[in-house]
Every structure is written in structure tokens, then in C-alpha cells.
Amino acid sequence: MAIEVKIPTILRTYTAGEKAVSAEGKTLSALIDDLEANHSGIKERLIDNGDLRRFVNVYINDEDVRFIGGLDAELKDGDQVVVLPAVAGGC
Amino acid sequence: MLTIDQATYDAIVAHAKRDHPDEACGIVAGPEGSDRPERFIEMINAAGSPTFYEFDSTDLLQLYKEMDANDEEPVIVYHSHTATEAYPSRTDIGLAMEPNAHYVLVSTREHGNDDGPVEFRSFRIVDGNVTEEEISIVPTLS
Prior knowledge:
heterodimer; A: alpha+beta; Ubiquitin-like (UB roll); two-stranded antiparallel sheet; 8 strands; B: alpha/beta; two-stranded parallel ribbon; 3 helices; 9 strands
């Protein structure tokens, strides 16, 4: 079971500069654990206190995971996952 | 240093003035590694707020897919402050996630929606460190 995960510029320090890596997992949570096993440190940038960080967006096949179960969102072979930090700020 | 053409500069200022008193935001994309801000893209501030901005998550994905397909990257990430100076706030610094981008801040605090000068400044924000840089406005990018 292989799922392609697109990695944003800011997190490519964890993937030796790779823009996309392959990972496995039946849920987003399991996928992130698998990512962590191969790219140590990346999990902390995605998850805080057991939940997805507020300003990190994750999409499965173009759907924001917040609308399809968050970390429990289900994955299947061939799915495409995109990680994008929010573009946000405030005075 | 940020080198920007007059038309793009004017477009950023016009957007900031139009959306005042809410914060305006957007990017200027350019070929990867070129440092050339070529393609101006206004974004909607999903927060619709005078004190916060955030790209809508669906728009964000669309934008990055488009840039990916064009081998582009965000050369400028801009937003406005409508009541405070054109300097990155603590929130701006904490959420700055594009280490290669020029972060442009425009302040409309003085003239709001009306004609008149704005503060227009550019910064690098890397690992929480803010460095202001000079801006060169040129008639067209060479």
C-alpha cells in the first residue's frame, strides 16, 4: 500500500529535499506515524497535543481532511496526500 | 533586496486600499528559484477581519497546484495591516512558513480606502528571525 505525500518547502528538511515521499497507513494518523518512522521530526510539525495543528492543512485527494474525519480520515492505495501550511497572520 | 515592477506594486497597494478596514492578502508567483515576482494573485481573506488574514484552505490548495504545474513558487506573500505599522506582528512571524518568500506588508492605517501614500515594506522571515530588506521599484522586470 503506497500513498504519495506532497511535502511543502518548509518541511523538506525532513525529507532530504524531496518534494514528495511515499508512505503507508490506513488512516491519516497511521500515515503520519509511518512518515515519522522514515523522516524523524516531521510528526511534531504536523500534530500538536494529539490533533492536527491549526495552521497546517492536509488534503486527501483534494479534500481538506478537517471535513472528512481529521486524523481518522481513511486512506487507500493510490490516494494522494498534500500537506500545506496555512498562509495566515494577523496584526 | 526585493525588486518589483511598478504595476505589481500598484496592484498590491490598490488591493490593500480596497479591502481596508479588513486585511488584504495575496501572493506574487514567479518561476522557481528566479526571485522574479511575475504573476500577481489576489486572494480572499477567509478570516474577513481587520486583525487577521488567512487564505481559504480550498483556494490555497488550488493555488499551490497551479504553481506546481507551472514550476512556480510564491516569490512575494503580501498582506496589509489596517491599524498598525507595516511590520510583521508576532503572529505573522510565528505563521511565516515560506522561507524563500519576500513578506511584503502594507499599512493602510493613515489613509484607509482613500488616495494617499501607504507604508510598503518587505521582510525575510526565517525560523522566527525578521530581516527587513530594501525595495527597488522598476518600470518593468528586466
